[in-house]
Amino acid sequence: MLTHLFLSGFPIFVSPDDFGRLKPRVVIDVREPEEYAKGHVPGAVNLPVNSFLMAKDSVPFHMMRFDSLVDRFASLGVKQGDRVLIYSSASLPYHYLNVAALYMVLKHLGFRNVHVLDGGFEAWVDAGKPTSDKKGLRPRIKLKAKPDSSFVIGLDSLIVKREVVDTATGRREIKVVQRTDVRFYDLRVPGYYFGVLGLPFYRRRGHIPGARNLPFTFFLQRKRGNRGGLFYVMRDTSEIRQILKLNLDPLKLNVFYGNTPREAAFALMLLDAVGYPRERFRLYLNGFPEWSDDTALPVVRYIWE
């Protein structure tokens, strides 16, 4: 059952007009340095994705080692209980994946009050809010953190290995099967889900058998601003709640994956926004690249499930 929960009295996704009431301790701009230099939310610090994500086995956008993350975020001078507002550009849907990745990293570090500027920097400018070209600076602190991986699941926990006997030869072999109490959700756009599109780090194309396609783009809608600009905003929280209620399985462990950890992180952001119980879902961060690389595991192509 979905329950509606707003942490610290504010929703996860906030508008530019909410800024004054939210009063974030630190604002983090996830855009590239050259974009940040042209103008940003006053006081915001710049933290592009390559400063907290890295490639793993040729697959981009994985979290850095925990000690490296702690060192990186200690420089922001913010503690786990402080309110943090994060944003990127919103001119393209994938920009929200960068924000989602930062959201996940902060949750991994134990930050509790993390909020996202809906519509990104474009919405801020469109609302007539002030901008600055001066670098935001924070005093470094000693950040104490323990990793929170309660929302993460690995491949070994998603499969079951069984010994079977070939009746013809009497030979014993190990067969790998999926857990029956798990329901997979594929956050990739349909082209990847159906196996029409692929990436260099795939061994095979398609999706995990039984996975339902919930493209992250489905939760975004294009908006024409008051000043004529186009950017993307999140669907209303009530819509997100309804979509999840109709698609998630309340009797199984719901597991989300994508091309990289960013899509799975997007699911974390959505589920937290509607207060979905943490014990009912997990993020499979290694996702389809790892699954497709293991030829003992089946892959489905050209079929919607």
Give an account of the 3D structure:
By secondary structure, the chain is of the alpha/beta class. The protein folds into two domains: about 5-125, Oxidized Rhodanese, domain 1 (3-Layer(aba) Sandwich), CATH 3.40.250; about 155-295, Rhodanese-like domain (Oxidized Rhodanese, domain 1), CATH 3.40.250.10. The protein has helices at about 20, 35-40, 65-75, 95-110, 120-125, 190-195, 235-245, 260-275, 285-295, and strands at about 15, 25-30, 45, 55, 60-65, 85, 115, 160-165, 170-180, 180-185, 210-215, 220-225, 230-235, 255, 280-285. The strands form five sheets. The chain has a five-stranded parallel beta sheet. A four-stranded parallel beta sheet has the order 11-10-14-15, with helices on one face. Helix 4 packs across helix 8 (about 260-275). The chain is globular and about 75 Å long. It starts with 12 loop residues before the first strand and ends in a 12-residue tail after the last helix.
